[in-house]
UniProtKB/TrEMBL annotation:
This is Ferritin. Keywords: Cytoplasm, Iron, Iron storage, Metal-binding, Oxidoreductase. The lineage of its organism: Bacteria, Pseudomonadati, Bacteroidota, Chitinophagia, Chitinophagales. GO terms for molecular function: ferric iron binding; ferrous iron binding; identical protein binding; oxidoreductase activity. SUPFAM superfamilies: Ferritin-like. Residues 1-146 form the Ferritin-like diiron domain.
Amino acid sequence: MLSQRMKDALNKQILMEAQSSQAYLAMGSWAEIQPGLKGVTKFFFRHSDEERMHMLKLIHFVNERGGFAVIPALEQPVMTFVSLKAAFDQLFKHEVKVSESINDLVEIALSEKDYATHNFLQWFVMEQMEEERLARDCNDKLEMIGDDKSGLYLFDRDIMTMDQE
């Protein structure tokens, strides 16, 4: 059984994963109307789906452990960006925030000696390490590219395989 504190914290994480999915969906929609960003568009839409799967993983866990997973109302995400770099900066900041939240969950699980939840959360810890690395790599590449259109073309083409490395 989950403690009330853990149920509340996991439901907060469900909200965060849902907001992540919405934010990346909005980024994908914005990218889709920008010329020449088909790879970036697919990247953001795929990440939106991935965050939704994270949310579902949490929902199932909470419900299986005797809690009740709350399906949250969501705020409108940011819909437009001044540049591709700005969108990826937001992506990185968001992933760091999610990592901090996962770490808070781990701390609660350990303080309550809830080893089943601690074990479950280790997948999220590793996933967030990968997500932060990917976001950092994208930002580093965009920083190198600057305003170079040929570099942006290559970035858009290469982003489809960046998260598979």
